[in-house]
Amino acid sequence: MTNKADLIKRKRLKILVTGVHEMNCNGETGQFISLFCYLKKKYPEAIFHIGELNGDISERQLERALGEEVNSVKFYKALTSPKIPWTIRVVSLFLRQTLLYPGCDIVIHLCTDGYSDRVLPSKFLSTLGVIGHSYQMLCGRLFGKPVVACSTTIGPFDYTFTRNIARFTLNRITGITAREEDTIKYLQELKVKSAIKSVADLAFLVEASPKAAVEATLQKAGVNTHKPLFGIAPSQIVAKRNRGSETAEQKYEAYITSMADIVDKMADKGCEVVILCQTTSQKYDDSVVAARIKERARYKPAIFDNRSYSPQVIKGIMQRCEIVFSSKLHSAIFAISEGTPTVTIAYAPKVYSIIGNMLHLPNSLVEIRTQDFPSLVKEINDKIDRCWQERETIRLALRRTNPGIKDLANRNIAYIAEIIEQRR
Known about the structure:
The protein has helices at residues 4-10, 26-42, 57-66, 86-98, 123-142, 160-170, 181-189, 211-220, 248-268, 286-296, 311-320, 329-337, 349-358, 373-389, 391-423; strands at 14-18, 47-52, 73-77, 106-109, 147-152, 175-178, 195-198, 229-233, 272-276, 302-304, 323-326, 342-346, 365-367. By secondary structure, it is α/β, with parallel strands linked by helices. The chain folds into two domains: 4-205 and 404-423, Glycogen Phosphorylase B (Rossmann fold); 211-402, Glycogen Phosphorylase B (Rossmann fold).
């Protein structure tokens, strides 16, 4: 006779993923597909519920990334028209989301670095952002569900109100997996008592597409695969992080010019150059700056963005590169996790924490926030030249350290599985 325990064990696991509702950034998409793929290996019958803010964009992105497995992802939507203000769409989605909490088995909150009052451009919007993340986590606890803030950077909080909300929320969830030591120290300062696990970013676990498929993709795009490959991951907004005296437009134009010059320099070295866009959405659309770089350069590189290519393909191209220059954290993570020597613009503390401290690569970072652009451009070129010259030594070192980093990333999955098993 089948007992109650056997029935519970066979029950289909329902996982509600909150915090991320747009798959237009390979960083967030990479975190989700790693979470999905590794948990599906442990729980093949699991169903994942995730919100969609922008029509069918996320569905198409995940179809490219997951293939037929996307059938295990259930999208919930509310108001998705871009004509409706973003804040109203978010509120409508949260209301729709609330209906899903009672039926789920666990809530996994992927807030990346969004749980801070420094992320959005004004105090009002920053406060709303903190309230939004807090609401999603507290709803899980309200319905008696385990809640994990997963693979995350948390804080800082500059305002007393947001700091108190965050402390209240984080002390009531089940646990936190923090992707860098600065977050752990900050949570200790906040006197957070929930379980805190030290992990690496889930995106380290994204599996690159097979080499044959990557070669075919490159050739179809007109890339000469007989030449060494150099990759650039640009950013539409990184130039704004510079605190020089130039106007925002002057900084943006200087950034484009410096990237175009790097394209031409590496092409003159005999490389094929490719531009790899991490984010393609509205004002954060890296394909816009990629097109400007291509227009300004003498050499015309192929552009690959996540409207047409999955994170696995982008990562496979980075694996194929001799070196990569990245203006984005997750593009650097993609490249480094495949053993590709990478020079990265340090535009935020998280870059130092993950690339500099966790990966022990401080010499690969270029600080953008304090230098004038001439000094910045010189340092970028010097570090690219050194990375190029030492690429084989760097590659060997990365191959030795990467298994340990991927084990750290796998701690996210192990901790979530531990909580699931405790509930069964």
